[in-house]
Amino acid sequence: MGAAAARSGPPTLDDLAALNREMAALVGAGLPLEAGLKSIATEYRGRSGRLAGRLAERTAAGMSLSEAVAAEGDALPAAYRAVVEAGIRSGRLSSALEGFAETAARVAEMRRIAAQAAIYPIIVLCVAWVMTVFMLSRVLHGYETLDVESRLWAPTLDLSREQSGWITTGFPLAIVGLSLIWWIRTESTRGGRLASRLVRWIPGVRRAMRLSGQANFADLLATFLQSAVPMTEALPLAARASSAVELAAPAEELAEQLAEGVPLTAQLRTLRRLPPLVRTALLNSQSLGESQMVESLRRASVTYRERAASWVADFAVILPVTLILAVGLGVVAVYAVVLMQPYFAVLHELANWSS
Known about the structure:
By secondary structure, the protein is mainly alpha-helical. The chain folds into 2 domains: 3-76, no CATH class; 110-355, no CATH class. The protein has 16 helices and no strands. α7 (93-139) packs antiparallel against α10. The longest helix has 65 residues, at 290-354.
């Protein structure tokens, strides 16, 4: 990674999404990219503005956009470099940038939703931990005179004041610290495989990314075919530019078989690895004609985008409720063991005395 990028730090997902939208608008309007990037660098503050400034300097020095992006090294994800390169090769850079911006924005939104949903359960968990330690180290010792300790499910803790303080505060601090590490590592686009796994760990993110990638793939494939790009080139280019990693291998395989003269109808096993709506449009290409196939791909793209947006909206409701229920039920179960079971043990002992 360049020294300037190292000093300023890698852009966040939000930064990269905003910058891509601006760049896509510039390319779509046919404006000079160098001057546009300088304007973006002046208008935007923070990391996205500095990134635009570095790209403008490199393009002014004679580098192509793909070379300028590659010079950022690990500051930008490898998928983004592939998107830019594929967009330039196909002559549809604007569409490629717009698709990547939408995917990045959707992942950033789900990351924020997950963080907001986790705040209340983390608070409940930390408070429950403090109360549990207090019960085990202080309250349960009160049952010693009744000789019911042998029937208690929860162990008592013999702790000094200093040990009690460390145990009481250690777990909440560890939870908060791990949460902050997760937030910081997933905020940046330069997280490598670890950050990617941390983001994908969020429930629902894989599905949203898959649907967004499928929408981008269908839209870019339609754009390439409409621009008279041969199918053997359009398939792998669309897969790389859509940032849908799972579609790269089947797209390459289909293109290779087509180049060897094998029709799509004879490649059903490979076609099954493509999105269903895209697969249907390709299989019916001969009967529909190219214009109708392109229209079918456009409709498929709209459908997948709507499904991705709907899933994100559902995710914003489902995740907080699920986390609160899981943590709440867990806390209730713990307190049923720690608090109620000793009470029933005392009642059982008193019943034995009366008999």
